Amino acid sequence: MIDTQKINSTITNASVITCAIPKTRYKLVKKPPEKYIKSLQLDLFSQFVTNDKSEVSNTVEVWESIPKYFLTPAQVKKLRTETGHADPYEWKYTEKGGNFSVRIQPALIKQGDKYQAFFPGITEELVEEALKKILTIQNQGIHDANKVETWVRFTLRMVLKELSARGRDRNINQIKQAIEVMSSCVITLYKDKKEIWKGSILQDLVTVGREEYLADTDAQHIGRLPLFISLAINQLEYRQFNYDRLMSCDEQLTRLIYKKLINRYRHANLLNNYHFMFSDLKNSGLLQQNREIDNRKKVLSALQELKEKNIISGYETDERKESRAISDVKYTLYPSHEFITEQKAANKRNSDTKEKHTLSST
To answer: Residue 342 CB: number of other CB atoms within 10 A?
Structure first.
C-alpha cells in the first residue's frame, strides 16, 4: 500500500527540487556525495538471513506497487507518431490508500539520425532488479540518511554479468539503452488527481572518472534511486526475498504475483492460504488483452509458472458470475515448503534488523 503521509513528510527536502516559475519546472541535478558516508541503514539493507547472499535481494513494496513496466513493444509502437515521438501515457488504478494514477513521459533516444520515444518495459524492470542487487554489494552503494538519498555505483559490464548469471541475458547495447530510458523517462504519481511525486527510475545519472557518457562498458556510473527506496532504507521497510527465483520466472505477471506474495503473505504456512481477486491484478496494467477470457488465461499461466518454480504447491479458482458472464475470479494459493522457509527467513531478517537498529540507537 502506498503510504502518502510518509511521502509527503519528506517530499519537500528529498524529492525533485523545482523553481517557482510560472508554467515551467526546472530540475536541479543533484551530485553524489564526494566522500564516503558511513550508513547503518545501508549496512542493514545489505545484511540477509541466508546461506548464500548471491541468491537474495530486497523488495520495496511501496515503490513496486506503482505500475511502470506494463507497456509492450507493440503498444509503444502504436503510441508513436510518424516522427517517432509519443505523448505521455497515463494509467489509473486503485490501492487501499485511495485512487491513484501514474503518468509516464517517455524517454527520447536517438536512433540513427532521429529521436524515438521509449517507455520502460521488461528490460528496464530486469535492469532495476540488477541495480538493487548491486546496491547491496560492499562499496557499490551510498546512502545519506539525513538527505534521504540513495546512490548506486555500477558499470554496464556489472549489469551484464548480473543479468547473465540469472539467465536474463541482455547485450551491452540493450543495457545501455535501458539505463538511458530509466534515467530519461519521467514518472508522475497522483493521488486523487493531486501530484505527490515526480521523478525518474534512475535519477541524476553521472559518469564517475570518465568523460565518456555510457560509452565504455567498464566506466563507472552512479545514479540516485527514487525517494521511495531511500525512505524504505531509512525506515527499514523492505523485505528479503529469493532474487534468483524471481529472475528465473519467464512471465512478467508471475514476477508481479510473486512479489505480492513476498510482501503480503508474510506468515505463510501449511495451515493457511493466500487469496486475491482477478480485479486486483487489473491495476498492474499487465492484463490488457482484448478479451477478458485471454486475460484470465494469462493469470492461469502465471500461476502455473509459480507452481513450476516451487513458489506455490497449488491453487484454486472460484469464478464469480453475474447472470452468465464471469464478473470476477477469486484465486486461492497454497504455499510450497520452500516458500514457507524463505518467508520465515525474511521474518527473522526483519526482526534482526530492527533489533540491530534499536541497539545502535541506544
So the answer is: 23
Closest C-alpha among 141, 137, 148, 138 to residue 57: 137
Please give the grid coordinates belonging to residue 173: 547495447
Torsion, Cα 71 73 76 81, to 10 degrees, reads 180
Going residue by residue through the chain, which has 362 residues, state the pLDDT in tens, using 9 for 90 and above.
Answer: 555 555 555 443 333 322 222 333 445 568 888 777 889 999 999 999 999 999 999 999 999 999 999 999 999 999 999 999 999 999 999 987 789 999 999 999 999 999 999 999 999 999 999 999 999 998 899 999 999 999 999 999 999 999 999 999 999 999 999 999 999 999 999 999 999 999 999 999 987 654 554 556 778 899 999 999 999 999 999 999 999 999 999 999 999 999 999 999 999 999 999 999 999 999 999 999 999 999 999 999 999 999 999 999 999 999 999 998 999 999 999 999 999 999 999 999 999 999 999 998 77
The string of DSSP letters for 78-123 reads HH--TTS----EEEEEEETTEEEEEEEEPEEEEETTEEEEE---HH
Given a contact cutoff of 8 angstroms between Cβ atoms, the answer to whether 220 and 139 are in contact is: no
Strand partners, 326: 321
CB contact set of 256 (below 8 Å; sequence gap of 6+): 281, 284, 286, 302
DSSP letter at 225 equals P
CA angle, 131 as apex, 2 and 106 as ends, to 5°?
Answer: 65
Q: Which DSSP string corresponds to 140-155?
A: SEEEETTTTEEEEEE-
